[in-house]
Amino acid sequence: MDIAQHIQELQASLPQGVTLVAVSKFHPVEALQEAYQAGQRVFGESRAQELVAKQHVLPKDIEWHFIGPLQSNKVKEIAPFISLIHSVDSLKLLKEIDKQAAKNERIIRVLLEIHVAAEETKHGFTPNECRDLVHHLPDLPHVQICGIMGMATLTDDETQIRKEFHTLHELFTELKGSVFSQSEAFSILSMGMTHDYKLAIEEGSNMIRVGTYIFGEREY
Ligand SMILES: *Cc1c(COP(=O)(O)O)cnc(C)c1O
Fold first, then answer.
1. How many domains does the chain have?
2. Has residue 219 been placed in a domain?
3. Distance between Cα 100 and ligand 1 center (Å)
4. Model pTM?
């Protein structure tokens, strides 16, 4: 099956209200064009330089999401156009995004990345660190916190994956009912990748980030 078919099949299978982010990192511009022609408009990338290069040559109505680890010194490269940053994992980064957004006279939408997986290497705040952050947030007028993002452990153990997604959903609901109760923007629960997006949707995800299923294996 080709990229267009995968996009169409996946889009048709998603419940209403679930947004598909097509994760196109490491794939060539031609692959993104094929997805675009199949109607896909939301793309996720994980490296600033690669994202800027693709944004430069592809249609301007694409909504670009940044999903990978983001170094503070790279924020300025994507600040002029980025639509959503999923991977905010420090106050320092949040402040830098605010600064660069101000320079570009825009508000940048972000998600707070939450660490729930068993692997040590995954980035993000623990749920408690996240609570602490949002209760003591400085004034950042050019940043809009729109929700949270997380990754489950890479495992075949469905029970564990569900448990981790459930933890994310509970934290999302808690924050939405407290700190962000006055924020209409706080509405995104980004979880689920190729191997676990179906479980993620069952556990309340409304934004999935799928790469391999659409574009095939990545070549590093
Ligand atoms: C690469 C990546 C994905 C997509 O992973 P697939 O398994 O290819 O669907 C999703 N989220 C993040 C944060 C990623 O880095």
1. 1
2. no
3. 26
4. 0.97
